Each structure stands twice: as C-alpha cells, then as structure tokens.
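Module 6 notes. Inverse folding takes a fixed backbone as the condition and produces residue identities as the prediction. Think of it as a translation problem where the source language is geometry and the target language is the twenty amino acids. Below is one complete input and output pair. Work through it position by position during the lab.
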C-alpha cells in the first residue's frame, strides 16, 4: 500500500555525495526515524519543492566582506526553498549550476561546495532544522564578481538519494527549476528567477557604471533617430552593393510570373545549375519560382577587369530581362541573392537598374559554438542557407570544448559515447559531469553530436552555397570533454589488459600536481603538451576530419586549433620536467611549452596542406618565425581595452587576420542593456544591429570616437608607436600595405540552450555582419599608418561622416522593417523582434516607436486585450507595448511603460 507523502517524508533520510557510491558519507539526520527514500518519494519531493532565486545586490559596499580589496567585486543572492509538506531529515544533497562561484554561505543551515566548473553541491549542515510545510527556507550566499542578467541563473537543479540498501536512486530534477517557453515569443523563460527591480543594486556593474537600463523610455529616445520612410526601400539591397545605378526611362520589372533561365547561357558560361540551385530556391520561397512565362534570366562571363575578387558580379534588371555576369559560381549565386533582396514582397517588382558589385573582404564568416550546448543539424542547415543569402562564405564550427565533443571520430568512439553527453555520473565513465544547467540526464537536447554522415551532409550543403566549413576542436585548453573521454578509454583498455592501446591517446600526466583554474573554473581541462600521445591524438582527429571533408568533396584547407585561454597548467608535471631536460626541440623553459604546442600543431597542419588558425591570445604567445607564414588569427580582443594593438601586431606578422572583436561581433551578448535579455555580457551589455552597422573594421582605434565601453564611459585609443623602457616598440600602427582579411561573427552557447534561442541571438545581427563584411561605407574613417589618437574629442570622425552614417542607417532600418524581416519569416527564422520604445506623457498619451520602422506595434492596458498602435493614443491604466513579426506569428518581448 502506498503511504502518504507527509508520513513518508518524516521517515526519509536522503543521501548523495559527489563521490562514487563506495566513497559516500552519511550525515546525521535531525530525526530518529531510520527509513530511507524510495524512488517515488524522491520524485514527489522534487516535483513539489518550490525554488526561487533572487539577486539581492551587486554593489561592492553591500555585497563584499568588510576586509575586501578596493577593486573587489561581489554579489549577494538568495535561494528560497518552500516545501508543501514536512521534510525533516538533513542527510541530502542538491546539485545546481552556478556560473559565478559561491564564495561564502551566509546561512548556518546550508553549505555549498563547487564540484567542477559551474557545478555546485548544496548540502545541509548539522544545524539544518528541516523543511516545514509551507515555511520558506532562505539560503543566502556571496558570489564572485556580479550577476547582471536574469538568464545567469541556470535551470535544472536536481536531487539524488540512496535507498535502504545504499544504492543510489535515479536523480530527480526539481520541477520548479525547469525552463518554460513563452507562448508569444517562443523564448525560454526562467519562472524560478525573481525579476530585477532595482537598477542600482541589481544592474550596476561598479560605481563607475553609467550604462542605462534600456526600458521603454530609453528605447523611445534611441529610436527617434529613425522614422517610418518606406520610400527608402524602393531600391534597397542588403548587403549594400558597390555601385547601383537606376536605368533611365525604364519601368519596374515584375517577377510575379517568376523567372525562366536561359539554358544556352548556362552552357556558354559553364555554369552548373547545381551551383545556383540554392539561390533559386530562396527566390522561389519568397514567391518568384522558375516558370515558362517568367522574366528571362541570362548568364554571362564577367570581364577580367571586373572580377578581381571572388564573388564579384554584375546585375542588370531591364524590360528585356535580367542579366547576371560573373566569373565563378559564387558571383552568379550572389547576383540571384541580390534579386531576392531587391524584390518588393507586396508586388514582386524590381526597378530597372544596373549593379556592379564585389566584396570588401574575402573572408566573411560566422562562428557557432555547438560544444557548450549542442544545436541541431537542421539549425546549421538553416544558418548556412541564410549565410549564403547574405553573401557570407565561412562557417567556423566549434565542435570541441570542455562541455562537449560533438563530432564522431572514426576509431575513437569514446569521444561521442562519453564526451557528447553530460549527466549525473560522478565517475564520468558514461558521460561527463553536468554543466550549464544541463541537468542529470543524458537524453536532453543540449547533449548530442553529429555523426560522420551528418557532418558530410553539412559540408556538402555548405559547399553547394559556396561556404567553406572550418572545423574547430579547441586545444590545448578547453579540452575537458576530450580528456575525460580518453581517460575512460584508458580505463576500459587497461581493464582488458591492453596497456599499449590504452596509452595510445592519453592526454594528461596522472602525476601532474599543478594547481590551476581556467576562466570557466576547471582545473582539469588542459592537454599535456609534453606527451607524444597528445600529438598522436591531435593528428588522429585532424586526419579523420580531413577524410570526412574529402568524402564530402570540400577538402579541408583551414583547421582552427583554438589555442586560447590556456591556464597555467604543466608547471608541476614530471613528464613536462623530463621534456624540458631531454627535449630535442630546444624548449628549455617550461613556461614555453604552450607556445611550442601551438607551433608544432600549426606546422603539422601546414605539412598536410592545411592552414592553421587560432584565437589571437594563443597566437600572440608564439614566435612568428616558428609559425607557417599563412597562419590565421582570429582577433577576439576588446577594442576599448586596447585590443587594436594585438590586431595590428598580428596583421603585421603577415598572418591572415580576421576581426572577431567581442563588443561588436559576439552575438551571444545581449541586444539591449536589459537584464531580461539573453546572453553573456563581459564585453558588452547592448550589442544591437545599429551598433554592428556602425563598426569601422578598417580603423579599429577610430571606433573610440563613436563608442563607449561596457560601463557606458568614453575611452581613448592611442595607435601611435609605443616603446618600453629599453626602447623596444611594444605596439604600433599597421604597416602600410597590410590590411585585415575579413570579419567574423561569433555565437558562443554557454547560456543559449535551444535552437530557437540561438536564432534569436544571431538574427538580425547576422545581416549587419554581412553588411560590414561586404560593403565599405564612405563614412568610415581612413586609417592613418603613422598612428593617431582617437577619443570623444578628436574629430577624425567628422560631422559629415556622422551624418552620412545616420542617413544610411535610416535606410537600413527601414529596409529591415519593411522588407527583409518578412523574408526571414518565410524562411522560418525565429529572429529577435525588437522591444518597443514608448512613453506616456502627463496627459496620459501613449507614444511608441521601434528600431525597425515598418513593424507593427501593439499596446495593452491592464486587464484588456492587445490593440494595434497606429498613432499616439490616450491610455488610462498601466500599459504594455510589444511588436509583432510581419507574418503575425510571433511577438516580441512586451514591456510595461513606466
């Protein structure tokens, strides 16, 4: 007979440790009852326990201890637990992800210990008095740095216990800590998080922080810079072409009957229909299919003088038909993409015109992290299609990191059998530990990997759209998933008595006592670079990935090794000490074995005919003389923190230098300065489309004249030559004749769990990435190779340039609102609908505006239905505002107008 929960709760004692079952300990319960948990009891308790997370303060004077350093940053948070029934025992543990480490527990009934990375373990102390029915039990603690976003607070707290025989029961997620999906926006929401209400205590980063919370009134002032002008979109095209001339006395050309391809011209230009099929499919999706009665499209060869850059094309739209000239498939595809961008969805017309176009940068990339949280193959295919639509040509796919390995590697099944899953297995024999709120179970969408067949499909899909896939498995740091997978392989083979095979791919020194911590708080995530088995593993992985590229028909020509954020590992590794003594490569300082790894792997790649690539911090540690001359560096340094200096140093090395600067190109940052917006925020808390549009990639330091830093303060960029005390130049301007090779948007997925959330973060920012990668605006400040100082007072960015930038943004904003977002709707892309700016004056008149004119705005008074906002209107009660997509299927996040 099933006992009642209340009675059984009195009889329960919970037991869970972060150790294996044989190492478990037992706490003293606060009741004399001796019965233990059953699975049903555990499930019921987890289902009914209510958890609420509340940030109290980020202010150092309130949050930090009295003896804190002057510049120390801390926060205070509280977790409320409410049980509907008594649960009196104190022998239990709860696991949860806490991205900022807990420093001190300010409650004597609880203790918190960090297990690994962001995984923490909550336990009761001997002073725990039990959960009483209906009573709120509050855990107060101090954490490191700050919490400035409601999405910082990770979901899926879980509890595990043992039965009467000491056998661990299946873990149970505490139901109140699960995410929910907002019906209007489709976005994840966290119902267990209390909303921020105090801008100073909860959203101020420091006493110097001047960034203003982007509430409706703030957005209203920002949005005044644009107005509704649909006429600006008559001939608008994204990305902006190099030249565009309307043809005199020519009427608009209607594509309502579709298009018909001149097959003879396809033959004459040796253009394979498969090379443009994807571009034609996008055109059909917006209502312009191939048809016998359609406008004739002819293909022709572009003259050599007009085709100096890959992707160049010429497009002529006239009464007689459409002519696309190019010298290779990407140019023809881009010509068709321009037709899709030009066409007016209301009547499917394009004005007669001629366009001559070519890209500013040959490298126009998008990086996606699928290792922290896995994202589906379909998401990638959709992304690739949109990249092609906007003339981007490089997909940097980050598939290996601490939290997951996402690609099947022939001969190393453990990488995906174990490294692709996070679950509650403290031995990490079947999976790696939970992180980032993934919860205790392996069968969740944040886990997963691409099979070899999946990866081949992805490459072929990209290749058909003229996009190169650049794989990345981060190393030597950021490698915990690989390390734990190979540890499991070692144990399994040793158990079978095959010691030689077991040692083949070992990645760490078991006798290494080095104490280190990565930026993500791991102390075991770095390959040992002094072991030959490490290089054997790297070579195996690269060889297998290269084979997949060969099978897909797109040879592997660039491989990104990461090389970033390597913590202070190896210092106490006996193998590394022997390596230094006996090393035939001449490395005599243990602090240089990290650069040695990068140089060795880079040359290993070069010998295979593959360009090595890495992030700028790791690349800066190498000796350029030891690196292949065609090496690629992705510069992820923050401009306001003198990031332009490293960018200039690396382009001066002669490397392929790709700008990836966080405060403008990290799409996992919030769109607006609002704690409800998703994303990390360590370099920016307000990275909207206009900010990306304003980027001057050809003159990084000049951005100091138009941008503020993360705390809303001006900064100075001194690009003049700098020398040290010995007279050696430490930084300086770009050498004349050298330039950056491209720009790349980044999407890191620590806080981005679903495909829908990732699309929200990428779009429409990806469109502005394409604009800046393809088109060099006339308002960009010319670079000064002799060096210069830039700040808010210097006048290199002239008033005329600023006015021209504002004018072009006005056109772009209207293009997005009136034309382009509707096309994303037709592609099923769940882009971010902007939050609405609004004010209510003293007479009760609501006035609203939006960043992308043309989108419909709605308003709702308290207790009433949503109504369309057309003009200023009198409201009597508290009012909310929101925007809706052109197809009416999705809504933006609503906000109360204060």
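Target side of the pair, the amino acids:
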């Amino acid at each position: 007979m099933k006992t009642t929960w209340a009675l059984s709760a009195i009889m329960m004692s919970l037991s869970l440790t972060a150790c294996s079952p044989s190492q478990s300990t037992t706490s003293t319960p606060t009741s004399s009852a001796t019965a233990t948990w059953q699975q049903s009891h555990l499930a019921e308790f987890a289902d009914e326990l209510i958890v609420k997370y509340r940030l109290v303060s980020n202010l150092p004077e309130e949050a930090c201890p009295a003896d804190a350093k002057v510049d120390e940053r801390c926060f205070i948070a509280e977790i409320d637990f409410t049980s509907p029934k008594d649960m009196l025992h104190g022998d239990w543990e709860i696991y949860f992800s806490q991205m900022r480490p807990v420093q001190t527990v300010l409650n004597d009934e609880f203790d918190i210990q960090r297990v690994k990375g962001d995984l923490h373990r909550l336990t009761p102390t001997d002073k725990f008095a039990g959960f009483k029915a209906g009573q709120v039990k509050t855990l107060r603690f101090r954490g490191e740095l700050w919490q400035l976003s409601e999405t910082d607070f990770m979901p899926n707290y879980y509890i595990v216990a043992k039965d009467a025989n000491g056998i661990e029961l299946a873990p149970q997620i505490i139901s109140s800590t699960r995410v929910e999906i907002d019906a209007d926006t489709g976005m994840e929401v966290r119902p267990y998080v209390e909303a921020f209400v105090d801008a100073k205590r909860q959203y101020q980063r420091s006493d110097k922080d001047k960034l203003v919370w982007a509430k409706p009134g703030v957005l209203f002032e920002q949005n005044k810079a644009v107005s509704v002008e649909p006429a600006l979109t008559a001939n608008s095209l994204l990305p902006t072409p190099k030249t565009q001339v309307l043809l005199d006395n020519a009427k608009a050309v209607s594509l309502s009957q579709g298009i018909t391809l001149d097959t003879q011209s396809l033959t004459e230009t040796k253009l394979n229909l498969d090379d443009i099929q994807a571009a034609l499919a996008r055109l059909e999706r917006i209502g312009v299919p191939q048809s016998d009665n359609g406008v004739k499209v002819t293909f022709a060869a572009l003259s050599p003088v007009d085709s100096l850059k890959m992707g160049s094309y010429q497009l002529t739209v006239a009464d007689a038909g459409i002519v696309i000239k190019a010298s290779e498939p990407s140019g023809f595809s881009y010509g068709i993409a321009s037709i899709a961008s030009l066409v007016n969805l209301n009547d499917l017309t394009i004005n007669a015109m001629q366009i001559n176009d070519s890209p500013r940068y040959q490298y126009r990339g998008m990086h996606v992290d699928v290792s922290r949280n896995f994202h589906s193959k379909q998401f990638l295919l959709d992304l690739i299609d949109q990249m092609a639509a906007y003339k981007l040509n490089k997909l940097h796919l980050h598939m290996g990191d601490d939290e997951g390995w996402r690609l099947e590697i022939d001969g190393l099944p453990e990488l995906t059998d174990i490294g692709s899953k996070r679950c509650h297995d403290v031995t990490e024999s079947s999976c790696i530990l939970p992180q980032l709120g993934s919860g205790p179970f392996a069968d969740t969408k944040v886990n997963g990997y691409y099979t070899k067949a999946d990866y081949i499909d992805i490459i072929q899909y990209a290749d058909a759209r003229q996009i190169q896939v650049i794989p990345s498995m981060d190393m030597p740091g950021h490698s915990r998933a690989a390390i734990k997978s190979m540890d499991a392989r070692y144990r399994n083979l040793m158990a079978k008595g095959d010691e030689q095979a077991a040692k083949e791919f070992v990645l760490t020194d078991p006798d290494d006592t080095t104490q280190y911590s990565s930026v993500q708080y791991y102390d075991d995530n770095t390959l040992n670079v002094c072991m030959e088995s490490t290089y054997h593993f790297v070579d195996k992985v690269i060889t297998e990935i290269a084979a997949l590229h060969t099978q897909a028909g797109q040879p592997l020509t660039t491989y990104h090794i990461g090389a970033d954020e390597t913590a202070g590992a190896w210092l106490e590794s006996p193998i590394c000490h022997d390596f230094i003594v006996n090393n035939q490569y001449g490395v005599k300082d243990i602090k240089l074995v990290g650069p040695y790894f990068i140089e060795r792997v880079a040359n290993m790649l070069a010998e295979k005919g593959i360009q090595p690539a890495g992030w700028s911090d790791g690349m800066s540690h190498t000796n350029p003389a030891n690196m292949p001359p065609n090496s690629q560096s992705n510069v992820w340094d923050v401009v306001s923190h003198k990031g332009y200096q490293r960018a200039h140093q690396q382009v001066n090395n002669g490397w392929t230098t790709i700008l990836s600067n966080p405060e403008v190109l990290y799409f996992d940052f919030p769109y607006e300065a609002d704690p409800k917006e998703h994303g990390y925020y360590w370099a920016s808390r307000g990275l909207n489309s206009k900010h990306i549009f304003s980027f001057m990639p050809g003159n990084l330091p000049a951005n100091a004249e138009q941008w503020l830093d993360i705390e809303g303060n001006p900064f100075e960029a001194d690009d003049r030559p700098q020398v040290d005390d010995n007279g050696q130049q430490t930084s300086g301007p770009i050498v004349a004749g050298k330039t950056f090779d491209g720009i790349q948007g980044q999407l890191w997925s620590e806080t981005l769990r679903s495909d829908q959330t990732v699309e929200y973060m990428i779009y429409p920012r990806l469109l502005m990435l394409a604009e800046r990668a393809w088109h060099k605006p006339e308002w960009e400040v010319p670079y000064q190779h002799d060096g210069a100082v830039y700040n808010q007072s210097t006048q290199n960015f002239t008033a005329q340039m600023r006015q021209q930038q504002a004018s072009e943004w006005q056109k772009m904003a209207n293009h997005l609102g009136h034309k382009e977002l509707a096309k994303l709707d037709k592609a099923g892309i769940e882009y971010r609908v902007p939050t609405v700016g609004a004010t209510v004056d003293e007479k009760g008149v609501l006035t609203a505006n939006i960043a992308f004119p043309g989108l419909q705005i709605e308003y709702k008074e308290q207790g009433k239905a949503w109504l369309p906002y057309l003009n200023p209107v009198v409201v009597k009660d508290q009012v909310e505002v929101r925007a809706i997509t052109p197809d009416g299927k999705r809504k933006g996040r609503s906000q109360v107008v204060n």
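Reference fact for the lab report: The longest strand covers residues 74-82.
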